[in-house]
Amino acid sequence: MQLVPDHGRSPHQPVMADPVTDLAAGGENDFAAFGLPGEPGTDAFWAAARTPVSVPADDGGWLTLFLWRGSPATIDFESWSGPVPLRRWGDTDCWYAEVRMPRRLRVTYQLLADGAAYADPFNPVGAGGDRSVAATPDTPAQPHWPVIGADDVLPLPRTRLRWISERLGGRRTVRVHPAGGGGPVVLLLDGDDWLYLHPAMAAFDSAVASGEMPAVTLVFVPARDREAEFGCGRELWEAVEDELLPLVAESGVPADLDRLVVAGQSLGGLSAMYAALEFPHLVSRIACQSPSFWWTPGALDLADPLSGPVGGATAARLREAPDLSGLRCAFDVGEHETPMLPHCEQVETLAEQAGATVRISRSASGHDRAGWRGALLRDVAWALA
Questions:
Q1: C-alpha dihedral over 292, 277, 363, 52, to 10 degrees?
Q2: CA distance 121 to 319
Q3: Using CA atoms, how far apart are residues 365 and 102, in angstroms rounded to an integer?
Q4: I need a surface site. Which of 3, 76, 148, 340 has the fewest CB within 10 A?
Q5: What pLDDT digit, counting tens, does each position of 219-269 carry?
């Protein structure tokens, strides 16, 4: 399988924490505490193996067991920690790691082996063909998101638009889905991730059917160059206003363009806030997860992009005292994104002082789409309330 870059992570996003691994010494009952009795490496053991599985740790967090069968492998966690090598059990084909995790953590990970990346074959919760999602037992549920295995092919919206952009250049495919029959337009930035890695179409359908959200029209907006398009520049939003939204209006899908929500993560969250500040006639409802409010021109060229002024260019713009009384903005950031918190907190405070109606929350995750998806449904519904 091919290594696929994650489009939700800023290319210079720092590792948030290092897990303390507590590798067992090889006693015959080391896996019994995780509900896996029997001799590791035997057919009976593998037939019963279901991981990751967590047990309480003495520090108040969790000790989580991961397994791999066959060749040497390493666990690659999404932004939360550095790589964790697995240890071989004796001379068997069983490779394992016991990873110390904090309370309330949902994290995407891959198994790296033989120069390729794989989903965890013992974990039914996938995120695309080569990723899996682990969650500690105290992590809040995400009830509308179906369990999708690594081999499952996600259904795609039937409506497909060809967007040939003069302002942005190139051609891109935009999918449109009327959840519950359609309604206010929800622009999902990094739309391909929400199509192919996480089943946003099914999740929104479920939330609408349950009555937790009004009917909406989802527009999955792909990015060709995230750093260029999601930085604080006018080109993307001029193209959305003058090119993309007219295509949606002509698509035949019911769509209320007067009630538009923009949802973005990481650099996409930065772009959503920029649109609200610079295109208030177009964007007055936003949902931002882990927005890159550290961004300033040139920050991505620094060894530590988050080391600049707190709140970056967004905070500087908010200090000019714009009137945000017509803006509803939901902000969410992962509990385990310690370096991001000061930047987000500064912008949250300044936005509220500028008159915006603000919702602030913290998710049980790091800089990770597996965590963002819980806030996505809730915050879009709130923005439309």
A1: -50
A2: 50
A3: 10
A4: 3
A5: 999 999 999 999 999 999 999 999 999 999 999 999 999 999 999 999 999
∠ CA 191-261-232 to the nearest 5 degrees?
70
Averaged pLDDT, 325-339: 97
Q: How many CA atoms lie within 13 A of 346 on its CB side?
A: 19
pLDDT tens-digit series, residues 71-102: 999 999 998 999 999 999 999 999 999 999 99
Spacing of C-alpha 25 from chain mean position: 36
